[in-house]
Every structure is written in structure tokens, then in C-alpha cells.
Amino acid sequence: PWHRPPLWDSGCNYYLITAACHEHVRVIGKSNDRMSWFYEELLNAVEEVARVHAWVVLPNHYHLLLFAESIQEVKTSLGKLHGRSSYRWNGEEGARRRKVWYAAAETVMKSERHFWATLNYIHNNPVKHGYAEKWQDWPWGNAGNFLEKMGRDEAKRIWRKYPVGKYGEE
After folding, report:
1. 125 close to 63: Cβ distance less than 8 angstroms
2. CA separation for the pair 55, 89 (Å, rounded)
3. What is d(CA 124, CA 118) in angstroms, rounded to the nearest whole number?
4. Strand partners, 141
5. Averaged over 18-36, what is the pLDDT?
6. Which of 14-23, 104-113, 141-150 has the highest mean pLDDT?
7. Cα–Cα distance measured from residue 13 to residue 109, given in angstroms and rounded to the nearest whole number
8. What is the 3 state secondary structure string of the chain?
9. What number is the average pLDDT over the span 79-106?
């Protein structure tokens, strides 16, 4: 629970997972129903094998910040989801051989600072890309829930102490 944020564990089991649609085409964001279906499927897929701390789904990519005993189990689960979603969406659009997903990459969190800056980056992603004016305005992420659970003062403290800066620009 967010009233007890995760203690840093140097065991390198915290990861940022990022996956993008092929050529950044907005396949996920074809409709609000598709966005909602995918975020529910995404959370169901990873919550079986990991503890999710932050997540956001955008029209052409997604980010997850999670703790996993086995990153391979997470990658296997995401691979199955990517297969299911590709099959479904290509069928809906009559594009059976279209490549939907480009890749998924994981980044190990190197420190507590890295963890919190990544969490801020994920929550700020819809704002960064111009999809929302405020974190809590984007329905396909957990920023609103995070703000509610942590409280505005604590969320502001975390934002100031672990700013996004140029995170993700490379």
C-alpha cells in the first residue's frame, strides 16, 4: 500500500518496462474501449508475476514500474499479451499480418532515486506527450490513485526531491 512505500532493496528486482507499438503507430489508442481493454489485460498479465508500483498506457506505448522475483516470467507474460492483442486488433482491422509491437525493454532500477524519478516519469508521461494537462486527468494510468493514496503533500515532496528533468530523452 502507498502509505508504506517500498523500501529500497539492492537485489535489483525493480524494473521499468517499456513497450511501444511498431513505428509508434497509435494501435492501442484506436478507441477508448481498446485503451480500457488493453490496460485491464496488461495489469492482469503482470500482476500474476509482479507487484506493480506505477503504470500508464498511452495510444502507442506503455510503461510499468514493478517489482518481480523473475523478470523472465514478466517478459513471458507480456509476450503472450502482445500476441493476444496483436491477433485481436489485426482481426478487428482486417490487417492479419501487420506487426503491432516493436519491442519491450526492461531497465533495472539502480537506486532509490532512480525508482522515484521513474515513478514520476511514468505518472507525468500523458502530460509530457500532450494527452492530459494533469496527471490525474489521464484515465489509463495509476497517477490519480497514487495522488489519492500518498496525499498531495507527499506526492509534491517526491516530485521535488526526484524530478524528472530530462529523463527519457535519450
Report:
1. yes
2. 22
3. 10
4. 56
5. 96
6. 14-23
7. 8
8. CCCCCCCCCCCCCEEEEEEEEHHHCCCHHHCHHHHHHHHHHHHHHHHCCCEEEEEEECCCEEEEEEECCCHHHHHHHHHHHHHHHHHHHHHHCCCCCCCCEEEEEEEECCCHHHHHHHHHHHHHHHHHCCCCCCHHHCCCECHHHHHHHHCHHHHHHHHHHCCCCCCCCC
9. 94
One-letter amino acid of 92:
E
Q: In this structure, are residues 26 and 62 in contact, taking their beta carbons and an 8 Å threshold? A: no
Compute the distance between CA of residue 150 and CA of residue 152 in angstroms, rounded to an integer: 7
pLDDT for res 159: 87
**Overall pTM > 0.85:** yes
How far is residue 123's CA from residue 110's CA, in Å, rounded to a whole number?
19
pLDDT digits (tens, 9 = 90+) for 121-169: 999 999 999 999 998 899 999 999 998 998 989 988 998 898 887 666 6
Cell numbers describing residue 87: 491477433
The single residue listed with the C-alpha cell 500500500 is 1
